[in-house]
Give the backbone structure.
Amino acid sequence: MRLWPRSLAGRIAALTLLALMISQLVSFVLFMHERDRFLERVILANMADNVAAAMRTLDFVPADERAQAVAALSTHDLRYRLASTPGRTFVGASDTAKRFARDMARSMEIDVARVRVAVGPGLARRPNRRAGDALRMAVRLDDGQWLRARQRVFDPTRHWARSSLLTLAVSGLLMAVIVVVTSRRITAPLRDLARAAERFGRGETVEPLPEYGAEDIRRSVAAFNLMRERLARFVADRTRMVAAIAHDLRTPITALRLRLEFLPDDDNTRAMAATLDDMARMSEASLTFMREEAATEPSRNVDLSALVDALCEDYRAAGATVAFEPDTRVALVCRPAAIRRALRNLIDNALTYGQRAQLTLSDTPEAVTICIADDGPGIAETDRQRVFDPFVRLESSRSRDTGGTGLGLSIARSVVQGHGGEITLANRAEGGLSVQIRLPRTGTI
């Protein structure tokens, strides 16, 4: 199946050419069969006429001159000879030879008992230059002698097979060009649909696609446009709702803080103030998350290694232990601000829980991989998917006491998935956590 095309246009072309080849081969086999039948009839009719003419001629030739007459009637392809017996050639004649004998006797209007026929390889097995004696015939004359005839057959249509194969090759080539061009035009709307779906899956803004092409394709494009509109409206409504809730929480939180000012300063009021601060941070983080989700940044081709190096340099300038050694320039089509925000969240986590961050960048023809490693305690395997949920903070070293709101990994995963990539967590053998980001090269300039 490796030879089978993967694209729809290629499969249409392959199926059309395969159907053409099968139909041409069937036609060729039928043609060769009918050609052999036609050749049989022509040879039999011609030989029967010639032998009948030779018999009539010998009726007017004296007996002592018949040998010379037979020699004069002979040609290169049809030779005659007089003999007292039909010869051993006709002993055990095949069914085909018997059928030929009946047909030739009927054509010559004589009794079939006077006719003997032997079929050679030329007539029964496709005539060719090496056929030799294709047909032998013996007819008993009125005086009891046997007129032996030997017909040599050369295939007058031997070039038909080559012509048919040449016609098949030329027809296949022309058909291939026509089918490839036509199928590419037919599947062009599907290619546009696939590109638009891939961009929409990365979170980019996609304009409605033009609906053209075959009826089924137009319906598919129309369904995609409707789905895109509904999803965009749903996401926008959800974002506005969550942002409104987070914004409206500011008022009761502020009111509760004012009421706490009039209460005595003790452990209970300090605990309540801490809870309100935590709620305020969560509310602000939710608003920030919703604003970033709603932001539409265009994708462009950027030097990813330079982007990562500049980000790490900012951390190093602030005294953080962040290591990155760019090897070569790695170009990728992405939303640079979103990628920078995701990397910043992951580096902040690595510094908070592992005191240092080690970044590496690897490049392949299919994808770019960024790895952020730290020296922290790592994350249990059962928690590696849960930590991506919003506001989830583990109870070990990654607790509320660190001051995080639990949205950093959620934002990072949202950004990575918006680029069609994936983010995975794994504990390092030497200790610490390794975060791996894989960004596919789909859409790279």
